[in-house]
Amino acid sequence: MAAGKPLTATFVKNVTKPGKYFDNSRYGLFLRIDKDGRKYWIQRIVISGKRREIGLGGYPLVTLSMAREQAAENKRKAYLGGDPLAEKRKARIATDFASVVEKYLEAKLAEFRSEKHKKQWRATLDTYAIPVIGHMPVETIDVTDVVSVLKPIWEEKTETASRLRGRIEKVLSWATLNELRTGDNPARWKGNLSEVLPKPSKVATVKHHPALAQSDTGRRWADLASRDGMSIKALQFAALTASRSGEIRGMTRDEVDFEAGHWTIPAARMKARRQHRVPLTPTMIALLKELPRLEGSPYVFFGAKGGMLSDMALSSVMRKMHQADLAKGGPGYVDAKSGAPAVPHGLRSTFRDWAAEEGCDHHMAELALAHNVDSIVVRANRRTDALERRRKMMVAWEKFLKKE
User: Fold this and answer.
1) Strand order in 19-22's β-sheet?
2) Is residue 106 part of a domain?
3) Which of 56, 84, 112 is the last residue of a domain?
4) Domain check: are 70 and 133 in the same one?
5) What is the pTM of this model?
6) Where does the signal peptide begin and end (predicted)?
7) What tens digit of pLDDT does each residue of 161-177 get?
């Protein structure tokens, strides 16, 4: 940017070329962009007769106005004989990992899909990381420390350990952008921990959700149809649509278009964070229209006092149905391979197996499950979600469910 010309918020947002961009604020402030495109605020300031540089944080977490305000405060401290750089270093040493986790969660709260997701985040860190590195200043944490957290559970609880690694990496990355630490991220996988720990795919045993045997679908549907209750209806709808439990439980009336014949799930409620349309068959529409409404509740399948059904509601129904069938001398409702009682999420696997055996188009089946099967470019160029083709497939699926 031209010398003597102040930076603007628009320029700071859009500039990408690596280099230094000075702000004419008389505080020695400039924006530095590294080769990776990351942006940092730096202040050149004279402290006790020596010119020094102080990091003020990364953009966009620290905006132009925030950087100017901090630079002005540092300037005042130096003028009065203080040392803002020494103060910052002292604060950095006192910032331990446990404290940074709290600050990270406060800053990133809006990004969590649900309160449950946030609790899961905190639980893994509290259980495995905090006892080992929670007391350590984030500046001093290195690869050895991260390995000491992960190694005890890497082979026995590989999926949990892999998620934990990613969460530690994000916390430390946030700390770096906020000038609480410097250097490479010791929790990074590629070219780092990948050289120390075995690949998750080599040590993890994939655990599938127990799925209802295809031969039991008709018997189970008849059992469901003989029962009543909001959780029962939600489970029926989950089976018909092959949707996730959370998507069903969070379904609101304004998401359903009876005239167009589809249910639109907003991106915020989807695992892939992308809007998804579900074609409605006549059976699905009839089920939805028969449901009672509760004034003041937006939910289609509402729970106690009009709130959302709990995440255990559908699982409880399937468990009770399984136990009741066993009590009558039946085989129960189990996974054909493991023999474990089937769970709601396993209905999606039952659908996928059926679609494969019926020769349904691979992409249509994956679209029905809201899976990402194409590259980003292919998805961007696709102009349709094949709603009508999927509707025909779901009609065939419901006939199979009912054994019609």
Assistant:
1) 19-22, 29-33, 39-47, 50-59
2) yes
3) 84
4) no
5) 0.54
6) none
7) 899 999 999 999 999 88
